[in-house]
Amino acid sequence: MTAELRSAVTDALADANADFSVMECDPNLADTAAFCEHYGVPLDQSANAIVLASKRPAGVHAMFLVLATTRLDVNRMARQLMDVKKVSFASSEVTSEVTGMVVGGVTPFSRPADLPLFVDAAVLGHEWVIVGGGSRDMKIKVDPDVFTRLSGTTVVEGLAT
Q1: Cα–Cα distance between 86 and 97 in angstroms, integer?
Q2: Distance from CA of residue 52 to its chain's centroid?
């Protein structure tokens, strides 16, 4: 991870007055299930940042944050929120291009200002959650209340099932 990206992520957290801590991790264990098992983090305390890309019309992107134990409602809720006819998970290449981050480390913090973030309301029901830290070697343990204070963020009931 570049020092610039690490600084941008922690600066964004500080700017949002987040209660957080940084967790270093083995990049080979960054995927949610492997991370949770190895580091003893309950899967239901982990949230995944997912980037979607529209197919019709092309070129619309958004980030979604859902608990790891749930599934993002891509074909109904996400598509409607993005106001597109067809949407799919962004490829690793598109995710990197849109966010400047790699899959396994994508974070809502320091995302581009023009990339909307939709957070499933269930994420807010926890005392803390683990999210990506911008790269595969860092995770963030954070009070999810911070997501109500991030610019360009919408909390949505029923975003995931």
Answers
A1: 20
A2: 11
The C-alpha atoms of residue 81 and residue 99 are separated, in whole angstroms, by: 19
CA distance 49 to 29: 16
Written as six digits, the tokens of 15 are 């700017």
Q: Where are the alpha helices (DSSP H) in 17-133?
A: 32-39, 79-82, 92-99
- pLDDT tens for the chain, residues 1 to 161: 477 888 899 999 999 999 999 999 999 999 999 999 999 999 999 999 999 999 989 999 999 999 999 999 998 999 999 999 999 999 999 999 999 998 889 999 999 999 999 999 999 999 999 999 999 999 999 999 999 999 999 999 999 99
How does 56-90 read in b/e, with b if 16+ C-beta sit within 10 Å?
A: eeeeebbbbbbbbebebbbeebbbebbebeebebb
Q: Which residues pair with 67 in a beta bridge?
A: 47
Token output for 12: 């964004």
Query: What's the token pair of residue 95?
Result: 């995710």
Tell me which CATH code domain 3-156 carries: 3.90.960.10
Which residue's entry shows tokens 């595969």? Answer: 136
Residue 49 pairs in a beta bridge with: 65
